[in-house]
Amino acid sequence: MYNQFQAMVIIMFDIAFIVLARAVHVMAGVTWAGATFVLAAVIVPLATRHAAEGAGRWMGLIASRAGMLSGISALLTVLSGIYLFAALHPHDDSTGGLVLKVGSLAALLAMAVGIAVGRPTGRKLAKLQEANAGGAAPSQDAIREMSALRMRAMMSARVATGLLVVAVLAMSVFRYVAAIG
Ligand code: HEM
Residue 128: CB within 6 Å of ligand 1? Predict the structure, then answer.
């Protein structure tokens, strides 16, 4: 008979659990990458370009929703990815395994950029925009600070996008690279 720990290990590596983790991983990964691409290519540039016409506040609200979606799906992608790594590729030294590692690292770095730069910048910008949303025109200092924060948000979204492009490409090809050459 199995002890409690052995029983837990058997359930953890059960095929049904692996299938569930793959489904969560791909769904969350697609949502994370998609939300980040839209942030970097559409929302942040429009907020920056049309800030003077009052678009900054509305775009900021949209960005904070997209940011939340991206953050939750990033967490699900990384947790399910780490589990899949432990369950299916613990000592994978093949070319495909190396590509998988590079993709995973790129995705982890994208998450770090989001946590360290994107999220705090977005929150600070949203606070400033709320504080200056009343009738009176914002001060020159506030305008300068908001503009610097928008630039930082743009950089962070672009860097995260670049890293996620690497992650998505690696994830999509790792299984077949060994067959190429
Ligand atoms: C935006 C980020 C990510 C996306 C879009 C993504 C997407 C995918 C997709 C589509 C697959 C299936 C590929 C196939 O079976 O041919 C996959 C597999 C895998 N991913 Fe990711 N992934 C992401 C991030 C990560 C991260 C951060 C990790 C680990 C920390 C990870 C670990 C894995 C592993 C180990 C597999 C192989 C599963 C298996 O062999 O069945 N992924 N990923």
Answer: no
Q: Which atom of ligand 1 is nearest to the CA of 32?
A: 1
Residue holding tokens 């190396």?
98
**Predicted confidence pLDDT, tens digits, the chain (181 residues):** 678 888 777 777 788 999 999 999 999 999 999 999 999 999 989 988 887 787 877 888 888 898 899 999 999 999 999 999 999 999 999 999 999 999 999 999 999 999 999 999 999 998 888 887 766 777 888 889 999 999 999 999 999 999 999 999 999 999 999 788 6
For ligand 1, atom 23, name the residue with the nearest CA. 29
Alpha carbon nearest to ligand 1 atom 32, residue: 81
**Which alpha helices (DSSP H) does the chain contain, by range?**
4-12, 15-38, 44-49, 55-88, 95-113, 119-131, 140-173, 177-180
